[in-house]
Amino acid sequence: MSKVGIREVATLAGVSTGTVSRVLNDHPSVTKELRARVTGIIKDLGYMPDPSARSMRSKVSRLIGIVIPDLTNPFFSELVQSAEQAAANHGYNIIVMTSLDHAAKEADRIRQLTSRKVDGIILVPSNDFHTIKLPKGLPIVVVDRLMPGYSGIAADHRNGVRLGVEHLVRLGHRRIGFISGPGHSVPANDRLMGYLDALEQMDGGAKMAGPPLIAEAAFDYESGRSAGNYLLARARNERPTAIFASSDQQAIGCMRAAHDLGIPIPAALSIMGFDGIPLASMTTPRLTTVKQPIQDVAAAAVAVLLNKQTAPELDNPILFACEVLNGETTAPPQPD
């Protein structure tokens, strides 16, 4: 079967190839009736425009690159899926590449995307992102991991954690442990500041019992499990009655640590996570978490790249509010 071309579509529709092209590019000069006739014929013939040819003519590839540190992290997977949907709503596709959280690989991925003539890049930067040079003239939007000196879009990590810890305080918890992220991570430090903010804002009669209980860990399950063991390996009257983890994966690992130690959740220990990934709703008991507005962040990043939304000013990022999702892993503390 020979390949159907734009000329066949134009002949059957009784219009010029230029008119067919305007229909394909959603040009406002095309009437609703003509658009319906041409698109009907395109569908009947199974005509597929050649994207490379369209790109050469229009100087627009209708491709957006996205570079993330890791595809195995459920948060980044959801970010990619949300960006793909947002791009599709504007008639664009995405190309996904991973940097493995390494600056040299990140620079290589950006070069590859630039050579493929993408119209812009959504970048979750590596933690040593500042060591690479970005190409000039290509729109790049930094998301999630906001870097000093760059504009970006993210969830309000600091305020989100503060809201979560305040939820635990309202339940009556005064020994609240915290599993932070890696010390070199910007979001991790923002979340740690949110935890400390909440402790400082406690009323005089509700001050933290003893010094802060903090364990630094990577954002994954096993690190959360190890951090949970560290925080819970102390006498009952000294260990935390609640633990806030900087990621849902950490929180789920901490739940496992509590289970292995015979500490029931939430009867003897409350646990909260951060991110709001789908897996959080599948645990038993269901995890209480602070949800990041991942879809909003992705949609805003795409809109900024396509000039549908004003870009954030330098060092003045667009921040989206987080929300507490009540699950089954938090409750008032038991008496010692």
UniProtKB/TrEMBL annotation:
Key words of the record: DNA-binding, Transcription, Transcription regulation
Organism: Rhizobium phaseoli
Protein name (record): LacI family DNA-binding transcriptional regulator
PANTHER family attached to this UniProt entry: HTH-TYPE TRANSCRIPTIONAL REGULATOR GALS (PTHR30146:SF109), LACI-RELATED TRANSCRIPTIONAL REPRESSOR (PTHR30146)
An annotated Gene Ontology molecular function: transcription cis-regulatory region binding
A Pfam match: Peripla_BP_3
Domain called HTH lacI-type: residue spans: 4-58
InterPro entries associated with the record: HTH_LacI (IPR000843), LacI/GalR-like_sensor (IPR046335), Lambda_DNA-bd_dom_sf (IPR010982), Peripla_BP_I (IPR028082)
Domain of life: Bacteria
